[in-house]
Sequence to fold (173 residues):
Amino acid sequence: MSEARWYVVHTYSGYENKVKADIEKTIENRKLQDVILEVSVPMQNVMEEKADGEEKLVQKKLFPAYVLINMIMNDETWYVVRNTRGVTGFVGPGSKPVPLTDEEMESMGLNATVKADIDLAVGETVMVTKGVWQDTTGIITAVSEKNQTVTINIDMFGRETPVEISFTDIKKL
Fold:
């Protein structure tokens, strides 16, 4: 069996979360957890100014009309994904899906095959080294080995706000 790679699936605009939910339900029903490992709709936090001039933190899709899927490509997984309602096709020439390269994953801030081996625990203080929250320090409130992330509280507008940060974007203090 070949190794799992990340593939990009094109969807109807606005159907990204529905496609993600439908694929995850199919994975569960058909017991495909070993071949379709993760379905992702990458989001980013953006400050938006409301009509009254007040700023609000909102989440926006990083790639509207696209869903990323980490899976082992075979006839069954291709069929399941391709025939999910809202999916228009895989990204690639013709009908041949092309996996994202490690460089493409890294440039998007997503880690393809790099698994950080970090000794982190709840209560430790870390500094963010990359991204929107660079140079911000926070105390770890949760650690997710599966997603390779930690959750830290960041002081935003006088409030403690939980933010999820990748292992590769932080360092212990």
Notes: The domain at 5-107 is CATH 3.30.70.940 (Alpha-Beta Plaits). Residues 112-116 have pLDDT under 50 and may be disordered. Helices lie at 16-30, 75-82, 102-107. The first strand starts at residue 5 and ends at 11.
